Amino acid sequence: xxxxxxxxxxxxLLFSAAKSNPVILSLRTKKIPSLALMKPPNKLLFHxxxxxxxxxxxxxxxxNVSMVLDTGSELSWLLCSKPKFHPFASSSYSPxxxxxxxxxxxxxxxxIPPNCNSTSxxxxxxxxxxxxxxSSGTLATDRFRLGNSPSLPTIFGCISSSYSSSVEDSNTxxxxxxxxxxLSFITQTSTRxxxxxxxxxxxxxxxxxxxxxxxxPFSIPFNYTPLVEIALPLPYFDRVAYSVQLEGIRVGSVLxxxxxxxxxxxxxxxxxxxxxxxxxxxFLLGPAYDALRSEFxxxxxxxxKLLNEPDFVFQGAFDLCFRIxxxxxxxxxxxxVVLMFRGAEVSVTEERLLYKVAGERRGLDAVWCFxxxxxxxxxxxxxxxxxxxxxxxxxxxxxxKSRVGFAPVRCDLASQKLGFGN
Length: 422
Ligand SMILES: *[C@@H]1O[C@H](CO)[C@@H](O)[C@H](O)[C@H]1NC(C)=O
Ligand SMILES: *[C@@H]1O[C@H](CO)[C@@H](O)[C@H](O)[C@H]1NC(C)=O
Ligand SMILES: *[C@@H]1O[C@H](CO)[C@@H](O)[C@H](O)[C@H]1NC(C)=O
Hints:
There is one protein chain. The protein is mainly beta. Helix content is 9%, strand content 34%. The longest helix has 15 residues. The two termini are 29 Å apart. The relative contact order is 0.16. One 2-acetamido-2-deoxy-beta-D-glucopyranose binds next to loops. One 2-acetamido-2-deoxy-beta-D-glucopyranose (NAG) binds next to loops. Pfam families: TAXi_C, TAXi_N. One of its GO terms (biological process) is proteolysis.
């Protein structure tokens, strides 16, 4: 997640034994002992609606927890209080001292550097949120077990102080940090490839750790786009994000007139494009957003009735909203919005382009907002592709080849073929 767009959410987890590909396994176990490599690729089923969540077990004896799967965050964290996770009921739980490399060099990419508690000499970590709230806790280690994989010691933030977000009210016990930073779950477990497919229909999905071609009995038509790396650190560039190059946007067949300079990071690093499973909707920098807003409005004139309330901005960033009569389906003729990445395209269609705002009525109409938001209003210095626009796309993060793959897939059917019937 990006700190300014954290949206907590509900989840459920199921999993099944994965089939192995011995060739791939033997190659990889020789190189790096890891969660993904010591054993067959691991498939998990997850549910989503506002965030993607997976269930896993933590500690000894294992405690079941649900965590948000977040490719935009580094440090995993758990709420270390009843009824989420009880650190002192776990014999494998251990807090980390300030003198540990995990509190120092390994923590270099965290958005807020850890502090040292001068009384306890424990490493203190903090999280901050869009609403300016923050919470703190202790950096700690315990055994995490995802699906049928072996449990591995994992460093995480054991969050104790009062936490003002609605995560408190949901079943979510924490967040699994999946970016490329030194303390992420991915890095700690040496996972080099993982992918997921989120169904558009029933809020379910599949998460797969490892190479899909060795586990999935059908071919997934991936197109890949290279991960963007920069040589030198820049203030607004998140070097541990999954950053890709957006080259253009089409609405229907119309290519938006967006100058290339707006789509590439500038000298401050602002303007990178991140694929982020921890953010719900997508955000575009102002000039690109304005071009999209104007062309989408133009092409849907006559199909959709504008809300026409300049002060109405959903979640502070979504200011293109419409009135649609209750129980009337979204018109099928709405043009798709195509995100053109270098080497791969993602097409966002129909109901994924509009989101019904809960509790808003205008006469007999419901209020629906366009699901692309303006980064400048948040504010956010990046393009963010959220998970709402990754529905019915198999998304693969491949660190060995430094690329992200996208394949249009009916994820509900794919889940069924993998034995996760509904
Ligand atoms: C999320 O899912 C729950 C349970 O299926 C549902 O009640 C709720 O309305 C959903 N929330 C959103 C924002 O879609
Ligand atoms: C944890 O989840 C597993 C798998 O769903 C289940 O078999 C086990 O009984 C659960 N344990 C607890 C303590 O709830
Ligand atoms: C530092 O540790 C002490 C002893 O465990 C604790 O009482 C105190 O609240 C901690 N300070 C902070 C700022 O968390």
